[in-house]
């Protein structure tokens, strides 16, 4: 990790993350929260999805294209074909885990009452591709050549991924308890590590996008939560 702070490219990467964190904090406080308070249904979903696509997917794609291929671990992160076995095993484990979790909590398998059709967009079609593009496609992809091994890169980007969720946790109403926030950070950090490992293992963003999207969908569909 010391290497990152000493190298010019590493400092630039950390600065970019800091700028994005600040931007996302401002968007969460002055855009996302008011949108949720003043709108509902498809209008709310459309407005939230629009800013997510611009701020995450748009920024991620721009940074990837503006970065020299030699500065990236995987020059074409959207490339195909992808390695099937790691993807299918990870997807199967994730589905099995969430199905078992839902059955343990509810003693049956059904669509939870809190599920809304609008969640299909944010939790299935939008979030996965946006977050994977920026954090695995760019931040992890740019970070990996700057450190000595995969594990260091995976841990750092997992922490970064967890921390970027803080603006949402701090603006949730009613307020989340400290224990809940810490629990959420640990869960998101572990998922960030998993998605990052899948990206480096398969050399493609698509496995992580699919697994991430399936995770988010099943959480709101059968487990309950948002």
Automatic annotation (TrEMBL):
The chain crosses the membrane at residues 12-33, 53-74, 86-104, 124-140, 152-170, 176-198, 205-224. Keywords: Membrane, Transmembrane, Transmembrane helix. It holds the Pfam family Rce1-like. GO terms for molecular function: endopeptidase activity. The keyword Membrane applies. GO terms for biological process: CAAX-box protein maturation. Residues 118-218 form the CAAX prenyl protease 2/Lysostaphin resistance protein A-like domain. Belongs to the UPF0177 family. This is Immunity protein PlnI. It comes from Secundilactobacillus similis DSM 23365 = JCM 2765.
